[in-house]
Design brief:
With 111 residues, this protein is of the alpha+beta class. It has one domain. It is built from two helices and four strands; from the N terminus they run H-E-H-E-E-E. It has helices spanning 3-12, 25-29, and strands at 20-21, 62-63, 93-99, 102-110. The strands form two sheets. A two-stranded antiparallel ribbon has the order 1-2. A hairpin with a 2-residue loop joins strand 3 (93-99) and strand 4. The N and C termini lie far apart (39 Å).
């Protein structure tokens, strides 16, 4: 029912509809297929035909994230934190992503 909305959003926000090559949905959910390989990830939707890499391999499967509503775009980010020192501490790590529209949302990523 929403396919036409996904397609029209892919025209306006092509980088928000990247297909990640992955062997299974479970591996994709565990970030096992992120980031994109050196050859890149194809855009899904309207600009799918512009990908220069090989997508014709037999059995090759692609997965993408979509938002729950609105323009349905979704971007993936990886954040790494390295701690050094000998003192044991407790606490939590949070992250807030900022863009041209301001602070998107704050997330607790580790406690």
């Amino acid at each position: 029912m929403r396919s036409h909305k996904y397609y029209s959003s892919s025209i306006l926000y092509p980088d928000g509809f990247l297909g990640y090559p992955c062997a299974s949905y479970e591996e994709f959910q565990e970030n096992g297929c992120f980031p994109c390989p050196v050859t890149g990830c194809p855009k899904m939707g309207h600009y799918a035909d512009q990908f220069q890499g090989n997508t014709s391999a037999v059995g090759q499967t692609f997965f993408l994230n979509t938002g729950e509503s609105g323009n349905f775009t979704s971007w993936r980010y990886r954040v790494s934190v390295t701690l050094a020192g000998k003192k044991e501490m407790s606490g939590s790590f949070g992250i807030a992503l900022y863009g041209s529209n301001g602070n998107s949302e704050q997330y607790e990523i580790f406690k």
